[in-house]
Each structure stands twice: as structure tokens, then as C-alpha cells.
Amino acid sequence: MTMVGHEAAWAEWRAALSGPRMHHGWILGGKRGLGKASFALAAARELVAEPGAPTMAGEHPDIITLTHLPIKGDEKKKEEGKPYQLRRNITVDQVREMQARLTTRPTLGSRRVIIIDPADDLEKGASNALLKSLEEPPAGTYFLLVTHRPGRLLPTIRSRCRVLRFPQLADEEIDRVLAREMPEADAATRAAAVAASGGSPGAALEFVELDLGKLHALMEEIAEQGDPAFTLRGRLADAMGARPDRQRQLAVVELARAVVTRKMESVPRSAIPALADAHADLARLVTQVPTYNFDPGLLVMEIGTLLASLAASREAANG
User: pLDDT tens digits, residue range 123-135?
Assistant: First the structure.
């Protein structure tokens, strides 16, 4: 997928690349689904390219990516191309293995790039180990930390990195991405995906891919009318599915957060505090879903209850 909205990031990156001294640590910050990982890989290839040398196709030996590995026992499934589950965190062992490679020279040129995606999910020990490399980076080594929630990084890591921000996109831009990447989606589905995206084209594409339309409609109904009999929350649980994987759970929480954000645009000022509280609670769930073993039924019930509270707060505000 060709990502849009990266023009300013590329301009800042290339200005730094052409400058006298390239900073060794970068935080690529912005909402999930903005294409930061794709940018990181493309930027890394520019950084390791040697003047006058042909561009290398495929994986580059001087670009090392640390990301979630398959859980123990699922490594063979990955090799066979079968569905597999990922570990919740990027481990300290991964960071130490990377650091061992930094004791050698780059393979093809004078530069090497370490991409960590997402750096939000580094274990505590992994963060502390990474800090040592950021404090004393080997010559020619650069770090690109992809992060959806920069506040989760250690302050000492943030202080050693330059921040490259990725903005959310306008609705019109996201609709164009959907029309190009998901031509089979009808206008109504695209409109719902745009409304639920929160400015993230990745979230909009995920909305279509995971068929989140029914969930979105139920969330809107709960937030608007409440759910005193718990009927809508039961339907929400059915739409979520009995055994949703972490990707679907996270997408559903992000979807609820987008519903709350949209509601903030049309409610009286007196209802804003309740919306802000619900948004904060959903933001907390976003950080917990990748690492906690939530019971799906309880998770969707909590989401539904937060949304139902919006209707109650609006009635109180209008009362």
C-alpha cells in the first residue's frame, strides 16, 4: 500500500540526512495505522545506501528489525505459512542479540539501522538494555523506534531521540485510500470505515478487512441510546466473536475510542468530562490488550458499559 500523509516526515528526514551530522536515534510517533513501519523501512534503506552503489533488492543485511516473535511452539507454523500467534512483548534477549551484532562492522557499507516496531512493547529489561546502546551508539549505527504511544517509552530513551511525527489524515484522504486499496467495499462501508478510523488509514482498512461494520453500528446505538436492559451489549459480544484474536480485540477497542472521539464533536460542553473519562478508560485498554489475557466477554462488556455511560451523561447534561 502506498501511504499518504508522509510528505512532511520525508522532508524532515531527508533534510537531516543531507546535513552535516545525522542524529543516531529517531522516534517515529503517531497513531497506529499511519504507515510508520513502512516509512521506517524505506528510510532505513536510504540511510544504508552507499553513494554510487546499486540499490539492493530484498532484505538488507544492515537493516535489523526487532518486532514481536511467534510464541514458543509456533515458529514452525510461521515457516510453513500457517496462522500463528505472536508474543506480547519484544524481549530483552532480542535486544541483546541485536547488540551482539553491533560489535561487528556493517556488512555492505558504513551504516547500519536498527528498527524496533513497536518500541511501545519493549519489556522493561529490553528498554534498559536498549538505553545503553542509545547512550553509546557504535559508529555508523542508527535507531528508528516506531511507536504508537511515545509516552510509554522511558523518558531517558525519549531524551536521546529526535521525534518525527506522523499526523492523522483528513476523511477525504482516507476515503481515497479505501477506494484504491479496497475497491470491493461499497460506499456505505467506506463511509463507516472513514468515520471509525480516527484519522488512520490503517484503521480504516482494518475496519473493512475485519468486517467491523456491525460492531460499529451497535457501538453508535449504545452511545446514543444507552443499554439499560443489556440487550445491545449482548449483541455486541456476539458480533465480537467467542474467541477473537488480539488483533480483533485491539481493533474493537480502537473502534470504540473513535466512536467516543466523534461524539465529542457534537455534544454540549457539559457532557465533555464524561466523554473524556470514557476516552481515557479506552486508551488504557488499548495499552493493556496487547499484553493482558482479557476474557473477550468481559472486555466487550466493559467497552459496552463505557459507551452506555455516554448516553446517560448526555441525558444528565440535557436534563
Answer: 999 999 999 999 9
Q: In what order do the strands lie in the sheet with 162-165?
A: 63-66, 112-116, 141-147, 25-29, 162-165
Alpha-carbon dihedral angle through residues 129, 131, 132, 133, given to the nearest 10 degrees: 100
DSSP assignment, residue 90?
B
> What are the pLDDT digits (tens) for 118-169?
999 999 999 999 999 999 999 999 999 999 989 889 999 999 999 999 999 9
**Could you tell me if residue 198 is left (phi over 0), alpha (psi between -120 and 50 degrees) or otherwise beta?**
left
Name residue 25's amino acid: G
Residues 238, 240, 246, CA angle at the centre, nearest 5°?
A: 150
Confidence category of residue 316, pLDDT binned at 50, 70, 90: low
What is the DSSP secondary-structure string of 243-284?
S--HHHHHHHHHHHHHHHHHHTTTS-GGGHHHHHHHHHHHHH
Closest CA to 126 of 149, 102, 98, 105: 98
Q: Are 196 and 281 in contact (CB under 8 A)?
A: no
* pLDDT at 313 > cutoff 80: no
212-243 pLDDT, tens per residue?
999 999 999 999 999 999 999 999 999 999 88
Using CA atoms, how far residue 187 sits from 17, 46, 96, 175, 179, in Å, is 42, 38, 49, 9, 9
Report yes or no: 156 and 124 within 8 Å, Cβ to Cβ: no
